[in-house]
């Protein structure tokens, strides 16, 4: 309508205040017509807004004249301030939305109730029948998804674990409508738990408990002095005395039969089991809600007080790897119900695609090995796997495939229960928090950080400061600088002594973000610098560890004389949409085949001058030291800073060194890495999804008719997921922390490359590939390992073989030190096609192969005896596979 009639129309609505429905994308020279869409009794009508500023005038308490932005409804005292704001507001986020900022306040640890262990946790798993979907071949011009299988839940198992570790025997079922049967069984468990919570156990205290309470001086909940306000806190499930607490803190730990949630844990709920459950949830009564990624994938969803969560959102590995990482004594629940558990302490073997009908369960022997083939992986099981399946069948006396399926499902549930219970115990011991009270590891680690450090972070109240910082948020650099390299030194086959020796070295920074999080980071005191011109001459002198820091918006010149030296790893990368005129003829050909989109923003390192570039002051100092020129400082935001995250990072680093199992080592690494994600949480990307039942006709009609409606996903005739655009966005996250961490991490990588490697080798060092914290290098030198000895302080060589001259534990796991990903094993050859898609051939014949986005490439795509063009062609095949896809239908 707008284009056909040369109009520009903005549409606003009303929801406890003015909200934004639509902002015109027409050229700015076309006058705007503002309309207010009013809804009443399911009917809508438009009314003309004569003056938007007057309509919005009472939206805040300030009484002076105000000018409002139509995208975010933020008001300004002067029109010139509004005009300066508009380009930045338009450049952040795709959707116009009413933005609200906190009036004031500090962010501190508040979730004291999450220290209380969840009274009951349920662990569960499904098995499914997979039937082939017949249909036409995939037309790549219309879709990248080929529907191949129909999945129907055929069995389940679950076990309920009480907070003191007590359990009942696992509940199992195999038969029709398994997902619906499962939900109804859980609702019975829910009612039983509610009855227990309604009758709390009386407190039992030993003499030691009385003495502990008498001498207590601090509240065990908030860790503040009791000062006469002391009550006895006890577990309402077991009656056991815990510790002394403030009366108010004690109330925070209160359990209610009507509100206390019951976590139901699946491994890979988001990717698999949730689809099975969503087909059945409409068949049972109860209040339904969700925390979505989108209309098809959910971080969590709830049915009544049952809260379904995904253990894979905490423990980022397949279940079999988690089992292998734990000590055998950790599996107490499995031992309780499977005394002969030795055979079960590994990934089970199951013919998923063979199980395509109910009759299969009656078969009295394992199918032949070839029937264990998986189309998803493009591979069959190994001989040893098949032998293991036969031993399990015999040892546990399976009479048919039904018995084998029950055992397989029950084993997965018991192992999951032990793994997650061990995770809970470790978390409660080290952080005083129960993971069962959270949805993901970032949420858990963020609270652990706030609790450990006791920090108070200032919430930004100035929207322009928030926009300013968002403008400076740029992720890690991932790029191929050179597509192919072959080493030439005595350690590789085909060595030519007539040519110069050169080596390929694959380096990785130890916990790069952990290093950045240990640096001084903003905490508050944000204020604009009034004299930016005066800052031009002094910014280089600002100390890295001083009490104040700066985020700046600058113009930078990239001198021509630096271009050759910096071509492989340009400074100051920019977020930009790559223009078609910059592309090669080959790239235009890819666009024509539909293999890529030109309209996608990428982080692009480039040698162009930078205008209005927002960055951390330490990055600016490094860039200027490496030869860039500062032309102008447009704006500067001053802040107070301190290394406030360092105690938490150091604690996890030390715990990892002391860990006695692979599981603990991985956990402490995860707790450092996942907290970073929370520091840069982008609230603009959150979606709002409503789960609506068929009988809620008025609600469904209202959502579908709303201008905020985005899309719908219909599960069946009784349930649909409706996504709506958010009407309000409250920006209450410390994004300045994430922005600083991202920028500071780049300083370490750039500093090492330019001030260490290039200072040592000059143009004899060439960057081949980089991905955030790694550098793949081609270095012309007689012996690169001998060179490393002379600079041993830069490297962590603790992973080298003990007999290797470079082996040392002096820098073991030291943050920011460089490690050799191949641990001293020479690299013979490298090929890189694109970011996160490359192949490295070691001199011993081993291959490092990466193809992000492809779950599992069929083995034939990698089956190249050598590198060179063979692997290049196979990588291209994997790249094409990545752009296609397979999926299944859910029953």
UniProtKB/TrEMBL annotation:
Entry EC no(s): 2.7.7.7
Catalytic activity: DNA(n) + a 2'-deoxyribonucleoside 5'-triphosphate = DNA(n+1) + diphosphate
Alphabetically ordered keywords of this record: DNA replication, DNA-binding, DNA-directed DNA polymerase, Nucleotidyltransferase, Transferase
Top EC category: transferase
Biological process terms in GO annotation: DNA replication
Keyword Cell cycle: no
GO molecular function: DNA binding; DNA-directed DNA polymerase activity; nucleotide binding
Matches recorded under Pfam families: DNA_pol_B_2
Domain DNA-directed DNA polymerase family B mitochondria/virus: residue ranges: 264-752
InterPro entries xrefs: DNA-dir_DNA_pol_B_mt/vir, DNA/RNA_pol_sf, DNA_pol_palm_dom_sf, Endonuclease_7_sf, His-Me_finger_sf, RNaseH-like_sf
The keyword Mitochondrion appears for this protein: no
Similarity field: Belongs to the DNA polymerase type-B family.
Protein name per Swiss-Prot or TrEMBL: DNA-directed DNA polymerase
Species of the source: Elysia crispata (lettuce slug)
């Amino acid at each position: 309508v707008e284009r056909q009639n040369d109009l520009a129309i903005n549409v606003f609505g009303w929801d406890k205040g003015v909200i934004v429905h639509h902002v015109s994308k027409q050229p700015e020279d076309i006058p705007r017509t503002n309309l207010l869409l009013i809804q009443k009794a399911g009917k809508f009508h438009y009314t003309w807004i004569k003056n938007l500023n007057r309509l919005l005038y009472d939206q805040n308490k300030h009484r002076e004249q105000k000018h409002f932005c139509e995208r975010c409804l933020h008001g300004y005292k002067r029109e010139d301030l509004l005009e300066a704001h508009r380009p930045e507001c338009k450049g952040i986020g795709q959707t116009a939305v009413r933005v609200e900022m906190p009036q004031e306040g500090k962010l501190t640890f508040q979730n004291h109730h999450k220290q209380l262990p969840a009274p009951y946790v349920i662990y569960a798993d499904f098995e499914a029948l997979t039937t082939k979907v017949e249909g036409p071949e995939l037309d790549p011009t219309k879709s990248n998804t080929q529907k191949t299988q129909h999945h129907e839940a055929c069995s389940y198992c679950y076990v309920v674990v009480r907070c003191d570790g007590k359990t009942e025997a696992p509940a199992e079922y195999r038969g029709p409508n398994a997902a619906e049967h499962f939900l109804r069984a859980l609702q019975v468990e829910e009612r039983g738990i509610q009855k227990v919570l309604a009758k709390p156990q009386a407190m039992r205290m030993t003499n030691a408990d009385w003495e502990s309470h008498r001498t207590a001086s601090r509240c065990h909940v908030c860790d503040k002095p009791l000062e006469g306000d002391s009550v006895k806190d006890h577990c309402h499930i077991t009656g056991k005395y815990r510790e002394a607490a403030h009366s108010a803190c004690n109330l925070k730990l209160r359990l209610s039969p009507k509100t206390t949630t019951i976590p139901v844990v699946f491994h890979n709920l988001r990717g698999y089991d949730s689809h099975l459950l969503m087909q059945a949830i409409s068949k049972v009564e109860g209040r339904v809600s969700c925390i979505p990624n989108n209309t098809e994938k959910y971080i969590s969803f709830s049915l009544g007080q049952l809260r379904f969560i995904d253990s894979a959102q905490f423990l980022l590995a397949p279940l079999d790897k988690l089992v292998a990482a734990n000590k055998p004594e950790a599996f107490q629940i499995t031992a309780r119900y499977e005394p002969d558990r030795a055979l079960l302490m590994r990934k089970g073997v199951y013919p998923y695609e063979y199980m395509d009908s109910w009759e299969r369960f009656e078969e009295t022997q394992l199918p032949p090995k070839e029937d264990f083939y998986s189309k998803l992986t493009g591979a069959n099981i190994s001989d040893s796997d098949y032998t293991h399946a036969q031993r399990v069948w015999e040892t546990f006396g399976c009479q048919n495939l039904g018995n084998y399926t029950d055992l397989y499902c029950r084993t997965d549930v018991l192992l999951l229960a032990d793994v997650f219970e061990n995770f809970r115990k470790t978390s409660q011991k080290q952080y005083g928090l129960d993971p069962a009270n959270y949805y993901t590891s970032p949420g858990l680690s963020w609270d652990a950080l706030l609790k450990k450090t006791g920090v108070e972070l200032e919430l930004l109240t100035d929207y322009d400061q928030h926009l300013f910082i968002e403008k400076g948020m740029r992720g890690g650099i991932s790029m191929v600088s050179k597509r192919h390299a072959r080493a030439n030194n005595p350690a590789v086959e085909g060595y030519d002594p007539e040519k110069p020796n050169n080596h390929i070295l694959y380096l990785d920074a130890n916990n790069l973000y952990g290093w950045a999080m240990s640096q001084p980071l903003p905490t508050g005191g944000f204020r604009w610098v009034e004299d930016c011109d005066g800052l031009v001459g002094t910014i280089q002198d600002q100390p890295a560890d001083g009490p104040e820091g700066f985020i700046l918006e600058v113009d930078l010149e990239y001198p021509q004389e630096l271009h050759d030296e910096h071509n492989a790893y340009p400074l100051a990368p920019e977020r930009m949409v790559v223009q078609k005129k910059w592309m090669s003829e080959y790239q235009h050909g890819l666009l024509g085949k539909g293999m890529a989109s030109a309209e996608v923003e990428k982080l692009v390192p480039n040698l162009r001058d930078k205008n209005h570039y927002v960055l951390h002051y330490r990055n600016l100092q490094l860039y200027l030291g490496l030869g860039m020129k500062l032309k102008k400082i447009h704006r500067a935001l001053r802040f107070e800073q301190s290394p406030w995250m360092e105690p938490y990072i150091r604690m996890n680093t030390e715990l990892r060194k002391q860990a006695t199992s692979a599981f603990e080592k991985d956990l402490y690494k995860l707790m450092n890495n996942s907290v970073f994600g929370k520091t840069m949480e982008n609230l603009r990307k959150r979606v709002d999804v409503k789960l609506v039942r068929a009988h809620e006709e008025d609600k469904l009609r209202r959502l579908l008719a709303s201008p905020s409606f985005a899309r719908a996903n219909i599960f069946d005739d009784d349930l649909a997921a409706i996504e709506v655009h958010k009407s309000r966005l409250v920006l209450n996250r410390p994004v300045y922390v994430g922005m600083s961490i991202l920028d500071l991490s780049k300083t370490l990588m750039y500093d090492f490359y330019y001030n260490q490697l290039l200072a040592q080798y000059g143009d004899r060092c060439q960057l081949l590939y980089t991905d955030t914290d790694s550098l793949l290098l081609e270095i012309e030198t007689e012996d690169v390992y001998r060179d490393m000895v002379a600079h041993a302080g830069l490297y962590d060589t603790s992973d080298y073989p003990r007999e290797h001259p470079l082996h040392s534990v002096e820098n073991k796991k030291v943050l920011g030190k460089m490690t050799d990903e191949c641990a001293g094993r020479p690299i013979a050859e490298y090929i890189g096609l694109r970011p996160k898609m490359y192949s490295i051939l070691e001199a011993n014949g081993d291959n490092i192969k990466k193809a992000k986005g492809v779950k599992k490439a069929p083995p034939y795509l990698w089956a190249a005896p050598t590198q060179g063009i063979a692997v290049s062609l196979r990588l291209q095949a994997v790249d094409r596979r990545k752009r296609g896809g397979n999926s299944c239908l859910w029953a």
